Amino acid sequence: MRLIATDLDGTLLDPSSSVTPRTRAALDAARERGIPVVPVTARQPIGLRAIAADAGFDGWALCSNGAYAVHLGDGRMLFAEELPSDTIRTLADALRASIPGLLFASVREGGETFVAQDGYAAIASLSDHKRDPATMGGVPLEQVLAAPSLKLVIRHPELAPAALFDTLRSLGLTGFEATLSGAPFVEVMAEGVTKATGLARLCAHLDIDRAEVVAFGDALNDVEMLRWAGRGVAMAHAEPVVRDAADEVTATNDEDGVARVIERLLS
Asked: Structurally, how many domains does the chain consist of?
């Protein structure tokens, strides 16, 4: 084991979105052995900063489901894969023709800029994007769709994300990657972008072979990463498709499942 890659929400973090003392001790023990711990998350840097001190994160991180890599210590960006604006417009037009009442938001500029459609903030909560909805503002849809995006967010006031996701897939459109993270919206990245592709690029930069990577996850957006890593570990509460993608299943995030595996591997 030369690198630990871990999802955050529902995986490393407990149900209160905290890092438990046992988990922090396991992460520190790995780092003391020279093993970097890389958060691989749907979150943006603003959401990482909220827990970075508790988790001891100060190195590389993968945000927006692998769309870009940023160094939390010095702000360097290793890469950023954006969804072209033409693709965004085509996707939005087709989806809106099938489902009225959709709301969109776009993550830009290294995850620091969040451009939300008018009405989006009214149905958002702080936990959704680790941003206060009162700071989101609102713009006409055309402005949301007008520029490239690291991650396009699609949600509906009443429909479940899984229903939106199924409809999006049924349209037969190409040129993008869509997934679910457990958040109340569908997440769309540039074509081919997953947590696995982002992790592969980072590991190539660090000269670490995939066989030497242990990865943890619990949601649909973790499946590719768990399959790619030398050892993929799913949480006990993960959906069957996630557990099937993994080499082993650990305890839940409420039972320090990540820490248990790290402790065993280090021993």
From this structure: 2
